[in-house]
Each structure stands twice: as structure tokens, then as C-alpha cells.
Automatic annotation (TrEMBL):
Keywords: Membrane, Transmembrane, Transmembrane helix, Transport. The keyword Cytoplasm does not apply. The keyword Transmembrane helix applies. Its main location: membrane. It holds the Pfam family MFS_1. This is MFS transporter. Residues 17-423 form the Major facilitator superfamily (MFS) profile domain. The chain crosses the membrane at residues 17-40, 52-71, 83-102, 108-129, 141-163, 175-197, 244-264, 276-296, 308-329, 335-355, 367-390, 396-418. It is a multi-pass membrane protein. InterPro entries: MFS (IPR011701), MFS_dom (IPR020846), MFS_trans_sf (IPR036259). It is found in: Membrane.
Amino acid sequence: MSDQLEQEIGRKVVKRLVLPCALFTLIGSIDRTNVGFAALQMNADLGLSGTQYGFGAGVLFVGYVLAKYPSVLLYETIGFRRWLAIITFAWGIAACSLAAIGNQVELYILRVLIGFAEGGLSSGLMLYLAHWAPERWRATILALPIMSINVAQVFGAPISGWLLDIENPLGIAGWRFMFLVEALPAVALAFFAWFYFPDRPSQASWLSDSERTWLATNIHAETKAAPDGSREGRWDALKSLDGWLCSLIWFCILASNYGIMFWLPTIVKGMSGLTATQVGFIVALPHAASAIGLLLNARHSDKTGERFMHIAVPAMVGGLGLLAAFLLGSGLPGLAMLVLGGACTGCTVAAFWAIPMKMLSPRAMAMGVVMINMLGSLAGATIPPLMGFLRESTGSFLPPTLLLTGIAAVNVMLCLVTRRRMRGKGEMA
């Protein structure tokens, strides 16, 4: 009966909460990464070099890092529903304002503001869903919002390319029109968040009394918190080797993924000479494969209970696939390797969040999630500019590709070390 109840709760949580949360991640991903398509026109209009563009793409994560902990504190103070509405509205307004920039300084400022507004989104969603995720659904529930990042590229890339190419009704540059159109859904989602989400399981009218009781009794984040509600122990993650190992793995995962997201349109354009719309459809292919692979990888991880090899194996295959794509060039074999490399790189996120939820104590969870996401944000702030510098200084995409392959190899080693550590402590890995 308990297993049946767990399965029913898992299905309800996916339908009622995970999919709506994934929509916020999807729109946020489009607003973060559409600068990669804007670069096809914007760089020439504003006179941006490759290094300046890379800095503009990555500086968003400076705002991410600065906002992580304050955003989670705000979430804990006012509740998930109000918090999500406020940050979504703020990032939507800042993203709309990108349509009016006139130089790189304004680009940098608005990218930082978008990052600051949206900075707590991933941390907040992970903390929120941790209170609703049964063990047998954990990787799936926590991976689905992340999968929407890939879905965003599947639909967002062709739409972004199309918006660049069409004669828009406002008569403005295509990249300006693209920024405006793709930012407006965030403003609408802010109102949806305010009226839709329950702050905690006890407020969910779509759960039965027995289901609410089961969640309160069986969910890790619910059952082991300090009974007096104190915050004692929340900083333990900073003193924990487990917390730092999780943070480094997440850094490598995001370094690879953001490196691909911000530079793939430019790479495909340089290799093929296609129009922006055509580039959009090509760029969508690796992300479509990644979305499918991510979900399958998460479900298999939940079924087997194994987490680390579900990160390490796709990471290494992804890194080697990207390197093979560069070496093979713009033909069909190179495209196939590009799809494989992008798909496997995206799959690495599937099992990750089930690891810190198991390794960190509940009272250290909030700070642990913030710490992990802050280090991941540093990957977004450093890797795209570094790739731009390597591309500009060498005139080739080989050094940036080797950088991503090397990061994948480091990720594999970190996963193996952490897995061995968990097994030494008698925990399933």
C-alpha cells in the first residue's frame, strides 16, 4: 500500500508542480541563452569583439552568484509563491529592456540584472521540489525542470533564428525584436506564480489527507529538520567535503552545458554559412536528443538507484563527441557527432540532484543547494568568456572544444572519487 501511495503521489507532483516549475525554467533558459542568437546580428551592430560578446554572455552569472543566498533567504521569509512571482516579474522586465541597448556597457548591466533577478530560481526550485519528491521519483522530479533547458533550446533556437530573419511589425533590428518577444512570457508567468503554487504540502488541495501525512513522514527534507525550526547546522555544507565534491561536479556539468549553449549558434554559423533560421534548426537537434536522453537517463537512475555513473558515462561520451564533431567538420558525420556530443552532455544533469539530497543533512540542505548553485554559476561566468578568448586568440574552435573535453574528463574523475567515498560510508552510490 505504501508503494502504491508513493507512486500516486509522485504522479500527482509531476503533473501539478514539476511541469509548471519546468515552464519557468524553460522561459528563463530562453532569456539567458538567446544572446547566442542575438550575437549573429548584435555583435556587428554594437561593434562587439568575440571576447566582449563572451563577457556579455557570461557576466549574467555574476548576478547569479550575488543573488543566490539573498534569494533563498527571501524565499524562506515570504514563501515560494510570492518569491517566484517577484523574481519572475523582475527578470522579465530586465530581459525586455535588452531590446533598447545601445552599447556593450548597457548589455553588461542588463545581463547582470537578469542574472540577479533570476539568480535564486534553480536553488529555489530544487529546495521547493525536495519537499515533494518521493525517493523513487527523486531523479525524475528534480531532472524534469532541468530538462526544460534542453526543450527551451529545441523550440527557442528555431524561434530565435526566425525572429531574427523576419520583417517584424515594429521595424526594429531583428535581435532587438527577438529580445522583446521572448521576454514577455516571463512577465505573464509572474502573475501565474502568484495565484497557482502552494507553499508547502499541507496547503495542496489536490492531495488527500493520507498523501499529505505520507509526505510529512517520508520526505527527507520534511522529516529531519530541526524540531524547533532553528537554523542551526545550515552552514555545515561549507565544512563538508561532500558538499564541495557535489559543487565541483555541478560546476563541470554546467561548464560543459553553458559552453555549448552560448557558442553553438556561432560555431554552426561559422562551419556552414547558413541563415539564422537554418542555424536555429541545426542547433535544436543536439538539444532535442538531450531532452529525450535526459529523461531516459533519469528514469533509469531512479530504477537502479545508481547516480554517479549516470553522470560520468554521458559526460565522457559527450566530451569526445564534441571533439569528434570538430575533427569531422560540417558534413553529415560531423553533424551526427555534434548531436551525440550535445545530447550526452545535457544528460549529465539527470541524476545529479538526487546526490546532494542524499549526502547533505536536511538542516544543511538550503545552504548546500546555494553553495552548489553558486559554484555552478561561476562556470557560466567563466567558461563562455574563456571560450571566446581562446577562439579569438587562436582563430580556431579547436582550443575551446578541447577545453570542454577536458572539463568532461575532470567531471568523470570527480564522480568516481565521490562514488567511492559514499560506498566507503556504506551508502548506495
